[in-house]
UniProtKB/TrEMBL annotation:
Key words, A-Z: NAD, Oxidoreductase
PANTHER family, per database record: 2-AMINOMUCONIC SEMIALDEHYDE DEHYDROGENASE (PTHR43720)
Enzyme category, top tier: oxidoreductase
Transmembrane regions listed in the UniProt entry: none
Family of this protein: Belongs to the aldehyde dehydrogenase family.
EC number(s) from the headed UniProt entry: 1.2.1.32, 1.2.1.85
SUPFAM superfamilies, sorted: ALDH-like (SSF53720)
Domain Aldehyde dehydrogenase positions: 25-486
A GO term, aspect molecular function: aminomuconate-semialdehyde dehydrogenase activity
Protein name in the entry: Aminomuconate-semialdehyde/2-hydroxymuconate-6-semialdehyde dehydrogenase
Stretches assigned to coiled coil: none
Top-level taxon in the UniProt lineage: Bacteria
Amino acid sequence: MQQAPSAVKVKAIDCLHFINGEFVPSVDGKVFNNINPATEEVLGIVAEGGSADVDLAVQAAKKALQGPWKKMTASERTAIVRRIGDLILERKDELAYLESLDTGKPLWLSSSTDIPRSAYNFHFFSEYIRTLSNEASQTDDVALNYSIRRPLGVVGLINPWNLPLLLLTWKLAPALAAGNTVVMKPAELTPMTATVLAEICRDAGVPDGVVNLVHGFGPNSAGAALVEHPDVNGITFTGETTTGMAIMASASTTLKRLSYELGGKNPNIIFADSDLDEVIETTLKSSFINQGEVCLCGSRIYVERSIYDQFLDKFVEKTKGLIVGDPFIQETKVGALISREHYERVTSYIELAKEEGGHILLGGKRPEGFEKGYYLEPTIIVGLDNGCRVVREEIFGPVVTVIPFDSEEEVIEQANDTHYGLSATIWTNDLRRAHRVAGQIEAGIVWVNTWFLRDLRTPFGGMKQSGIGREGGVHSFEFYTELTNVCIKL
Ligand code: NAD
């Protein structure tokens, strides 16, 4: 698949908070261990933030809103944003290594996707914001209206562990380009690349207090303290739907602006007229890349009955060829799951599939020869229907269900029969059907004959319980700015 990068041996780092331009421990000195999911060994220690640390970070961010950052011209600010991307590329081998150590994902994947796309987020948003102009409208000969955009203020960025740097930079880049100051709260399971990113921001010339980082957990910890803080103007959150619900409840007391990218249980719909080899090649990725720990993974596979057996034969055969194991070996296609807790959650769904009458066609267990590490074979389950929990609930691991269908109407109904609505993939060579089905699937993102192909100008996000709002292009800036209409009587 991808070229393996030259292996650089990089040592894991201990992670401190970054507040007002300095790396600092927690006020109360608390720390927790960072575990390597591939070996179960301790990688290092992480400062465990609480409300006192969050308050220091928020006060620094609030003060920085009035400092040199505010006085910069747009071109001065966007040059710094661009430089962050340049410095990520300069340190890409180190960042890729740390990302794979933290997550258990293959090094080739961190090197080819996570890190370069993180750099591109800064390059893209630093340029894109310069293309935007404000609205103006004339009301007959009575008045002239125009709008001005200002930064939202202090923004809290709360992130998950599956694509740590990529998703953090997807928020940080537009937030900075629009002139905000931020407090980042990365996932407790993956603190390392966020820590290096803070250093990179400083080296790129971001003034003190503009970018702050507080490590810690969610409830009763740094995450909750950030959401509850009265001086935080907005929270942009990516994570589980249930966490989103908890955040919405606690953010209500200070009435913050919220942006939500939540869970998914995405349909991958394969019509008989599609090009099966192309389908299989992409479906391997949309099922198992990053150990299936991607919110966009197409874990519900629906196949038109006339090609169901043929699809399964080929899909099973190709999946058998995916090497599971050490993230730092070039041939590895599937690394380790993120944690013991998550491994147990994912494997509990495999047990549930058996109870619900499903048949484990492939995988479903630890690969042989691994005593340590949260490894799981790519798993294909058949014999379940849409009523089963395994088909309805997000598993977020290398586990897919395959279900046959007979008609377009039936598969649209099945695809939409979920609380989620993040993404969908449709495979067909019938142009009219592609448009027809795409227009009826309840999802924020629909791919036709492809998956995970992104243009950063386009809206990204989910409907139903998969999210609120959109990110990408102008949509990101709608979240990160406040709009004022100025009305002048003529
Ligand atoms: P999670 O919701 O458990 O945690 C995400 C972040 O929220 C972490 O930093 C965590 O510490 C913090 N958090 C937890 N409880 C909190 C609280 N009460 N208040 C404030 N912060 C809190 O999610 P996860 O397990 O890290 O990530 C996996 C989930 O993320 C999956 O559901 C996946 O689909 C989703 N995800 C969605 C997208 C998307 O773009 N829609 C992208 C990636 C991942």
